[in-house]
Design a protein that fits this description.
By secondary structure, the protein is of the alpha/beta class. It has 11 helices and 8 strands. β4, α6 and β5 form a beta-alpha-beta unit. The structure holds 3-methyl-2-oxobutanoic acid.
Length: 265
């Protein structure tokens, strides 16, 4: 049985200059597939609202549903670091965040992910003191789609880019273990990754981040919708799911994915 991946082992891997991988999973079968092939981190994303439940956004997803899917993923997991999303409206206060993050950790998560910037510093510190590692999601944060007016690239203006870097620094200082960047220009992601002292994982954020994440249904081509620019359908050139997942892993490790076609300026 290979050794389980931990927050510290990911930090060491990044220090050693190796890229790491993350895929979403929502059930035991997908979790077993990905972890057995060496995908270091698995995200029980609230994207399950869209790809599993058929909702038009992630907003309807509840803590109870996240607990159910985290338990299922945890049963299938074979040693990957398991990150669970805190859904919309589940971390509005420090006390609410502590209670709900506790439920996700008891369901089998090793880390929770929250969407937001420096205003979450007190929450991040409280989680850290309670022994709960956190990943903070910046850039296009889908739970704020109604504030953004759509799913748009974030941080293109110089002021907004600097705010994002300052947010990431403040969150790391407060105790955040990872930062996740979604749909930001590659130059900003590079500058932020070089500045912030914790691992940075990206989706639609270019090649310079320490790790790469994709929604599993997208990278396996399991959709009738047009794929976003930042996704590669690995099943298009593979004859088995094992080959598709292994290609994703090899491409991230070698820097072949993402390339300029998957990135934003
Ligand atoms: O919910 C999710 O799948 C996510 C990824 C897009 C990073 O947050």
């Amino acid at each position: 049985m290979p050794k389980a991946i931990t927050v510290s082992s990911i930090k060491q891997l990044v220090k050693d200059g190796e890229k790491f991988t993350m895929l979403t999973a929502y059930d035991a079968t997908f979790a077993a597939m990905f972890s057995s092939l060496g995908i270091e981190t698995i995200l029980v994303g609230d994207s399950l609202g869209m790809v599993v439940q058929g909702q038009s956004s992630t907003l309807p997803v509840t803590v109870e549903q996240m607990v159910y899917h985290t338990q299922a993923v945890s049963r299938g997991n074979q040693g990957s670091l398991l990150v669970a999303d805190m859904p919309f409206n589940s971390y509005g206060s420090v006390d609410q965040a502590l209670a709900n993050a506790g439920l996700l950790m008891q369901a089998g998560a090793h880390m929770v992910k929250l969407e937001g910037g420096a205003w979450l510093c007190d929450t991040v510190t409280a989680l850290s003191r309670a022994g709960i590692p956190s990943c903070l999601h910046l850039g296009l944060t889908p739970q704020s789609v109604n504030k953004f007016g759509g799913y748009k690239v974030q941080g293109r203006e110089e002021g907004a880019a600097q705010v994002m870097i300052n947010d990431a620094l403040a969150l790391a200082e407060a105790g955040a273990d990872f930062i996740l960047l979604e749909c930001v220009p590659s130059d900003l992601a590079k500058a932020l990754t070089e500045t912030v002292p914790v691992p940075v994982i990206g989706i639609g954020a270019g090649a310079a981040t320490d790790g790469q994440v994709l929604v599993c249904y997208d990278m396996l081509g399991l959709t009738q919708h047009r794929l976003p620019k930042f996704v590669k359908n690995y099943m298009a050139e593979a004859n088995t799911w094992e080959n598709a997942v292994t290609s994703f892993k090899d491409d991230v490790k070698s820097g072949r994915f993402p390339n300029a076609d998957h990135a934003f300026e």
